[in-house]
């Protein structure tokens, strides 16, 4: 067996002159003087919340992520998870008014909550 064809090929792993690792400079400051400004995206933008949903999440304006966090706190505090199939939530009277049914899939909860949240910039 001749291996001379492979000997003439350049080794891709060792000859990576084009890949340069970027240098990151980090300055240390105190946490009180450090203020991180986040971009306003659709996920962290504050939305107006309906009155029905505001009763559960205790607020009329907050981002989607905060609404979901507070919904999970409510669900766990009232022990509404289905004991047999954990991916479903058994709704009490308050949640059934919001979702419109007695049993909701946990990972599809945000889809059902979307009609109770509205963007204040688009309400013109």
Q: Can you characterise this structure?
A:
This protein is of the alpha+beta class and 124 residues long. It contains five helices and five strands, in the order αβαβαβαβαβ. The chain has helices at 4-7, 51-57, 64-77, 93-99, 109-113; strands at 47-49, 61-62, 88-90, 103-105, 117-118. The strands form two sheets. Strands 2-1-5 form a three-stranded antiparallel beta sheet. The chain has a two-stranded antiparallel ribbon with strand order 3-4. The radius of gyration is 26 Å and the shape is extended.
Q: Beta fraction of the residues? A: 5-15%
Roughly how much helix do the residues carry, as a percent range? 25-40%
Q: What's the tally of helices?
A: 5
Spatial arrangement of strands, main beta sheet: 2-1-5
Give the low-pLDDT segments.
Answer: none
How far do the termini sit from each other?
A: 77 Å
Structural class: alpha+beta
Tally the beta strands. 5
H/E element order: HEHEHEHEHE
| Mean residue pLDDT | 79
Characterize the largest beta sheet: strand count, sense, and whether it forms a barrel: 3 strands, antiparallel
- The dominant shape is extended
Rg over CA atoms: 26 Å
């Amino acid at each position: 067996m001749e291996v001379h064809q492979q000997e003439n090929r350049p080794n891709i792993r060792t000859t990576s002159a084009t890949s340069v690792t970027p240098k990151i400079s980090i300055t240390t400051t105190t946490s009180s003087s450090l203020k991180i400004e986040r971009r306003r995206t659709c996920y962290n933008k504050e939305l107006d919340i309906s009155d029905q949903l505001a009763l559960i999440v205790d607020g009329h304006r907050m981002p989607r992520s905060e609404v979901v966090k507070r919904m999970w706190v409510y669900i766990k505090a009232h022990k509404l998870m289905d004991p047999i199939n954990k991916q479903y939530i058994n709704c009490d009277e308050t949640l059934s008014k919001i979702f419109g049914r007695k049993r909701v899939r946990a990972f599809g909860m945000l889809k059902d909550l979307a009609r109770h949240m509205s963007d204040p910039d688009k309400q013109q």
